[in-house]
Specification:
This protein is of the alpha+beta class and 444 residues long. Helices cover 15% and strands 33% of the residues. The strands form eight sheets. Strands 20, 21, 24, 25, 26 and 27 form a six-stranded antiparallel beta sheet that branches. It has a five-stranded mixed beta sheet with strand order 1-2-3-4-5, covered by helices on one side. Helix 5 (169-183) runs antiparallel to helix 6. The longest helix has 15 residues, at 169-183. Mean pLDDT is 81; it is low at 230-238 and 242-264.
């Protein structure tokens, strides 16, 4: 146990408290008239004296949440502000530290509702609720210094939702969307968490949003994995746990890929699952009878598949997410696989990989209102032929025929056709998600 101090910005310090369980970070922010301390750690030392050695200004204490590793030093301060939703969490956690007494909750705590502005004098900190890890988790945004202090809302490690007074995954997802919306207003923003690696970028929020989407849309299921506080489901570096007395469920990497198709293709007899995961990577497996050499070409890169026994050839893919056209070559001859998605590229039907991951949540099929994609035919006076186009109508279009909508025209690239934008391109799903998040107005 002990404290280490790091000056991370002008008038801004990170205080690291060591612990065999997990080091915890506190942050001291100084304005022109006041200073604020975010969290008090385990309380193993003279935190108040340390803070007063760094600033001579009057000091306010705020909590991101009321778990034992963030409230241990509260007894050293006369007043501590926290979300009202965290009062029962405090009652569950104060007994877990030797540094607090029952009366501390009554004498020191100042419950706060909703979003607030904290004026330190020339430095205004915005604070808002982000429930998930705990019911009243609170983030602090420092716009002038381009910093966000997120406590345990997201970090480069585990975020547990199986603790007393944790929220469910859907509530956590909604909180992350609020956080993401605030952070994206500032392209220079950095994230300073309560544990693990620091600082972080906005991409860490997208990682957890991706994990939430995987779970809520049934693309992943729970798996027990050892975490710092016991068994918890794991998903790469993201651990999301939703728990109650009878159930623990979470997110893990699936052992097979679920392509975006409403009539998914299942392998025929003696055919392997074409896309699986192994050691955290996508694995392509093809059954090619009597073949000597199997390769795939992706863009300008050729990858050879290795024989894995019998008729099976396999290779690990060099990328983890995204949409990629792929050409399959069996003994030098191009082959179209019926077991992979088929689009249209290079002026012919073409296979493609559709690999979902945290970075593809923006175009994922999610539980939001969906528009309609229509296939329309028309006679073109330009080509002198019948042509086809795909038309996207936003949710609610049919219910409001009197409304006028902006129109966006998308032209496919050379060698592609009209299905590309809604098949491999997922333009309709991107629009559905943008509309659901309030980031776009309805248009055709």
């Amino acid at each position: 146990m002990g404290y280490q101090v790091e000056r991370i910005r002008e008038h801004t310090w990170m205080i690291r408290e060591e612990s065999p369980l997990c080091p915890v970070y506190m942050y001291l922010l100084e304005g022109e008239k006041e200073a604020m301390l975010i969290d008090t750690g385990y309380g193993s030392g003279n935190l108040k004296g340390l803070a007063e050695s760094l600033t001579k200004l009057p000091l306010r204490v705020w909590l991101t949440h009321a778990h034992f590793d963030h409230i241990g030093g509260c007894r050293q301060f006369p007043e501590v502000s926290l979300s009202r939703e965290e009062l029962p969490v405090w009652e569950c956690n104060w007994k877990m530290t030797e540094n607090l007494r029952e009366e501390d909750g009554k004498n020191r705590l100042i419950p706060v509702d909703g979003s607030v502005s904290i004026d330190l004098g020339g430095r205004v900190i915005q604070s808002f609720l982000t429930p998930g890890h705990s019911a009243g988790c609170r983030c602090f945004l420092d716009p002038d210094y381009h910093m966000a202090f997120t406590g345990d809302v997201c970090c480069k490690g585990d975020v547990l939702l199986n603790l007393p007074y944790s929220s469910d995954v859907r509530t956590y997802q909604a909180a992350l969307l609020v956080l993401r919306r605030e952070l994206e207003k500032d392209p220079e923003i950095t994230i300073w968490p309560g544990h693990h690696t620091y600082p972080l970028t906005v991409s860490i929020v997208d990682q957890f949003l991706g994990a939430c989407a995987q779970l809520l849309e049934n693309h992943a299921a729970g798996e027990l994995a050892e975490g710092p506080l016991g068994m918890a489901p794991g998903y790469g570096q993201t651990v999301i746990v939703r728990g109650d007395r009878n159930c623990i469920s979470g997110v893990k990497e699936k052992t097979s890929m679920t392509p975006l198709a409403f009539n998914p293709v299942f392998p025929a007899e003696n055919q392997p699952q074409v896309l699986t995961r192994r050691n955290g990577k996508f694995l392509l497996r093809l059954a090619e009878k009597n073949a000597e050499k199997v390769e795939i070409t992706i863009e300008d890169r050729t990858i050879g598949l290795q024989k894995a026994g019998g008729e099976i050839f396999e290779a690990e893919l060099p990328f983890q997410e995204g949409i990629f056209y792929v050409q399959i070559l069996v003994d030098g001859q191009e082959q179209l696989s019926p077991y992979l998605p088929i689009g249209y590229g290079y002026s012919r039907p073409y296979n493609y990989f559709d690999l979902e991951g945290p970075g593809t949540v923006f175009c994922a099929l999610r539980n939001v209102p969906h528009g309609v994609v229509r296939s329309e035919v028309f006679f073109s006076s330009v080509t002198g032929e019948w042509e086809r186009c795909m038309v996207y109508a936003p949710p609610g279009y049919e219910a409001h025929p009197e409304m006028q909508y902006p129109v966006l025209y998308l032209q496919h690239g050379h060698g592609e056709n009209e299905i590309g934008w809604t098949a491999a391109g997922r333009a309709n799903l991107i629009l559905d998600n943008l509309l659901a998040e309030g980031k776009a107005v309805p248009f055709v």
